[in-house]
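Worked Example 4.2. Consider the chain below.
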Amino acid sequence: MEDDHLEGDVEDKDTEFTWEVKANDSAYHKQCKKKGFLCWRQKKYKSNAIHTAKYNFFSFLPLNLFEQFSRVSNLYFLFIIILQSIPEISTLPWFTLFAPLICLLTIRATRDLVDDIGRHRSDKVINNRPCQILRGKSFLWKKWKNLYVGDVVRLRKDNIVPADLLLLASTEPSSLCYVETADIDGETNLKFRQALTVTHLELTSPKKMASFHGVVTCEEPNSRMHHFVGSLEWNSRKYPLGIGNLLLRGCKVRNTDTCYGLVIYAGLDTKIMKNCGKIHLKRTKLDLLINKFVVLIFMSLVITSLLLTMGFTFIMKELKDKHFYLSVLFMRSEARESSFIFWGFLILLSVMVPMSMFIIAEFIYLGNSFFINWDLSMYYEPRDMPAKARSTSLNDQLGQVQYVFSDKTGTLTQNIMTFKKCCINGRIYGDASTPLPLPQQNPYAWNLFADGKFQFYNKDLEFAVRGQLDTVVREFWRLLAICHTVMVQEKDSEWPGTLCRLLPSGAHQPSLLGLDSRHKSLKDVRPVAQALLVPRSCQGLGAGVRPCPEIPPPRGKVLGGGGLPPLLTHTSSLLDLSDQLLYQAASPDEEALVTAARNFGYVFLSRTRDTITLMELGEERVYQVLAMMDFNSVRKRMSVLVRNPEGAICLYTKGADTVILERLHRKGAIEATTEEVLAAFAEQTLRTLCLAYKEVTEDTYKEWESEHQEAALLLENRAQALQHVYNKMEQNLKLLGATAIEDKLQDGVPETIKCLKKGNIKIWVLTGDKTETAVNIGFACQLLSENMIILEDKDINRLLENYWNENYQQRAFKMMSHYNMALVINGEFLDQLLLSLRKEPRALVQNAVVDEAPQQLGMTRLDFLQARRISQMWKNFGPFVAPAQSADSKTQQSPEVLRERAFVDLASKCQAVICCRVTPKQKALVVALVKKYQQVVTLAIGDGANDVNMIKTADIGVGLAGQEGMQAVQNSDYVLAQFSYLQRLLLVHGRLSYMRICKFLRYYFYKTAASMMTQIWFSLFNGFSGQPLYEGWFLALFNLLYSTLPVLYIGLFEQDVTTEKSLNMPELYTAGQKEELFNYSIFLGAIAHGLATSLINFFVAVLVSQNMAKSGSSNDYQSFGVLVAISSLLSITLEVVLIIKYWTLLCVLSIALSLGSYVIMTSLTQSLLLYRIWPQTFQFLFADYNVLSQPSSLLVITLSVVLNTLPVLAFRTIHEITLKLRRKEEEAVPSEEMAVEPPVTPLRRGAPARRSSYAFSHREGYASLITQGTILRRPMGEQSGDTACESLNPSEEDLPSFRKESIFNARKLSILAKKRLQQFGRGSQEEVHSNISSQITAERQATLLLDCHSSDMKKPPTLSSLKGSLQLPPSESLACRRVPSQYALDVGSSPRRGPHWKRSASPSHLEVPREKP
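Applying the procedure from the previous section yields the following structure tokens:
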């Protein structure tokens, strides 16, 4: 009860509408304040200026220093510097660490400053964009940053919306406004927004806009992109507002000349900016690991210093007792003297964490970033765009990526829909074997309306079209020109001058063509264009127009149907009518289809409320539109009922093959062949549509029209009734053919994804696009495959609900790793899942509105098939299970956290995850979810503003320099021009950077321990006095010169394999994911190796020195220090020789220069000249010369190096041999788990699926707007303000889809499997088809489907089983019969023969034998 009460309070708090906007009153909004932190009050309404940068002039220094000293290593160095500044305890000068620390901080601060300057520049460009703002009674050009809440803005075509605006009016009919939201949700199709009727009718001039003082009351700024609730109060009346009235910032105005809007949210309050997130400080896993190692080393040094101090205390007591006269040297108390010695040892041993390592690492990061920038293999020449590393500190993390989160639109695809192939009457046109014409030739020169950018061409199809001998070909292209909701926009041009230049001399008068100076539109010149296309008119134009010799002369009538229009050779270059037709479509697919018909001579010219005008091969034809039946996610088809100029009525239908093929009048050889062609198109991941038509008699039409009118007037269940009427008309169709459109991928995307998957990189696609479109792209880029088990929302919910409770489901999770699985989820599912990561209360998430239409209740075919599929999966998983994990350990976690953890666990076992219809914030939350529960390195890649939040949230953000602006680039860590370059960025640069930095760190810790731990052993012999062993200059120059160059070479140039092998063997990448090259064991191994080296170097020298002293040879402190120093230097140099695998001349030079620098610098620091000048500074006079001149010293050095090298070399050799033998044994003997696992029948999805994703994903178009006349412009004589048109709420298309059918279950059978079913179901099939209806109750539908399942599928349902109930439509009635073949476990019992068109003698054409009458 308390939880319910709390949730209600949260919901009531959110539903308070406290955001008040007063039109044309920006002064009011500027002075409004709201309560901030403590007593601080801040502005409630922000300006439109955005600030995405991290620092400003005043905050840079404190914020950057805070971030820098959040690194434990920097705090450690600062602490040591403070100790060194105390003279009583200092053993080294304070500036020896202070100067390098300042250098390190400066390098990192400069890098951060350069990155942030780029963000400031990007913000400045955006804030200074121009827009027209109403000031007084006129619109003035101002900058975006000068825009405030309450201002009225005027936008033109192709303008970007500067803020979240309430649409007030537009120049389009009914104040519609078309926008492109690709930069927000990734969708390329046009959406429309509509103003309120009252503002559309009243606000018709700038003067009236200036006098508009309405008040908008709405919700506070939030991140919900598809949700808006508010009201407009004006003239004592209130009008409701929804998301359909709002233009969001970042949208682009399309196909709308002018529109006007009122600013509701500005700047950082806009929805897109609320979704952008904040800049996070990104740290690599190695960086965090080194911080832990620094803490570990520091604790070790403290313990060591304490032990040495205890030794000093013991020695001091012994000295005082034995040598009382030495007590004058220890005037301080024992405790104070011990504390000074402790701090002295801590300073002396502080070099165990070398500052030089961090400085050199910065140069290594910088050098590897330059290698990325200079890589010509990642240079994209068409845009002159090289790869760019905007962050220099994340290179090693590129070699550890396990999850890639990718946008779809503009990242995987090019946003280009291409008409690729078509099948007409069983014959394929557009095979790859048909060569395209040469670029200088124009294959569509005979068509003045052809689009010059259209790439598809087939010579045989051109002859078939222009010959006008095949009725099916003619009706095919006529259907594409008629059956759509595309709107046409005509450009104005100076037509008379153009036409006069076309005519020969003596015919230059416009009067000859019936034109005067006023004729400038396409309607005026259309008769002339028609005349130029037909031979009869060409004869009157003289010799200036001649036929092309490549095309045979015309045959038959000119306009009657057999004429072949001549090719006008020079006409197309002078008179280009193609630029005068601009199509605006609800989908790029639909535009591609209409453009294809246009290029083949069936040109869509214009439409009115009840007519469509075409130019068919030079003949203008006007069709009367009797009815338009638009697409939606349930129908998956569109139909147009028209009356042609001859008076005949025809129905033209296009849609998914799953619904069109079931509505055919008969199925013969052509239909069977077309099915196989569709399967072949789907294998090529093309987006297919089936085209069909039929002729309708007058009596049938009149009867149907009365039913249609009755359904349209219903007040309840109108949509269901209309669908029933539509379905009745769309029966007994004749198949014309199929189209195939390619959603063009970027170059190399499938190969890149395949290669990354081999490298154990999981790829998730996060897109704002429709589910079916995203899935189709998933198949196209080989992210999904036909043998995958695809889990959807209902499947996942069932798994998650029982994840922690039942052994049954826990076992399933353990078995899922043996199957190829994929998840496909939507934004609504994520809203319910990501509750613990969202800042919004739960009530807001549950009330979120998504962009789908509701469907009928009841158990659908999807429910049944999903239930059967999951139950079969449980059946397979059930027998092989260990006891489930107890839920008691999870009781302390909230249900939301448990659900999230279960989802991530499930998703991690899948090969691919596709998240559709997600907002920018949801993309970031998905990335954060994986980071939270998997602790893996994530990479996000995108090209639009909707990807910015995801890019910021991921460990590595990659921005593509695409067509959606540069916001993703400005907020990214790396910039690429193509998605395919990601392969090289990760597998080559990332893997090499990780390998290099790991080898660098391991060697640096080794050499530091090997050279500096001798100080500890020396303390055992010097009375724990803290005296340094080495010469001061050796300590200063050791990490600067003597051992730096080989280490730098390792960090910049080391390679274990070539670049080609890195790309060809992506399995090598897994070493970084598993952290195999640098971890706790390797770090401790490096320290142990260094410890052993220091012990050998020191004690060998000690033992030999003692023997030398006994024999009378000189053995002083300086000689001993030099002897240990040379042994250490040669030992670590030989170690670097052993670990380097990529030997070049540069490598040899680096080693030679390091040793040479020791010889040169030692000669200088131990020279007599410097000793005479500064005897206290240069005390080791000729120490090296004295040591190296003695043969015994040379033998000691040699012995130390040999003892350090040979055991290590032997150990590594044995280790390599052991690993090779172990690998061979693992390959020869299968693992125990695999050996005991019984065979499990894999779940397949049946025959290769045909994906008519356009029909499935296409939203409801503009049909309702067209039939109502809302979208159409009125003739000039009519006044638009006479009648108030009904306000259409565009948000109706954005309602949630709770019973959405899935394209995964709508699969067709192969020809062989279908013939098997027809053997026992031939008789009842026609019986079922003859009694079809579009309505069924939920209870009877569920009963019917379950009865079909329980009967073992031995018989298809007959008419007798349906008596007394409403009947199923074809798509539903055949569902039960198709279940066994779609999801049967044994579909491969008989090999499927390939379609006979593949075995045809002609590879490019498909000839179907004509049936005898």
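Residues 351 and 1102 are 23 Å apart (CA to CA). The longest strand covers residues 413-424. Compare this with Example 4.1 before moving on.
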